[in-house]
Every structure is written in structure tokens, then in C-alpha cells.
Amino acid sequence: MRIAVIGVGSIGRRHRDNFLALGCDVATFDLGDPLDLAGVDGAVIATPPDSHVEIAWKALGAGAHLMIEKPVSLTLDDLGHLF
Q1: What is residue 51's DSSP assignment?
Q2: pLDDT, tens digit, 9 for 90 and up, residues 48-78
Q3: Second label for 25, Cα 20 to 30 Å away, from 5, 15, 32, 67?
């Protein structure tokens, strides 16, 4: 299984380490990195909350399952675009 962990702060590193311990292939991306999500099965979004929805759309477009750190969004309006 190939997992993208987007966000390399302490939470992102913790998710990365957990997925590595499970034997997953993990690619990490910092917030400013170009997201190459081709072939990714799932994505963990562990960036600042104001970037969650935009990154989620990119990951969904690549066909990835999502795990988004809370809060998913800073506004209810943004949530309506995801669900």
C-alpha cells in the first residue's frame, strides 16, 4: 500500500512512522511541495487547517482515500464542497 503523508511536522512524522511500521510505502510532502499523488492509495493530510480542503480535493482527484487531521475545515462552507 502506498500512502502520502502531506505535512512533515510532528503529527505528520508520527503518521509516517506508524505507516512505515505497518509495512506501507510512504511518500512525504511538505506544504509547499508539488503533490505527485499518482499511484497513491491513501493520503494523510496533516497540514495547517486552512489548507486541508484544497489538498483534499487534489488527493481525491488522484483517487486516494483520505485521513484528514482535525479540524477538516475552518468554515462550514468549505465542508460542503467536500461532502
Answers
A1: G
A2: 999 999 999 999 999 999 999 999 999 888 8
A3: 32
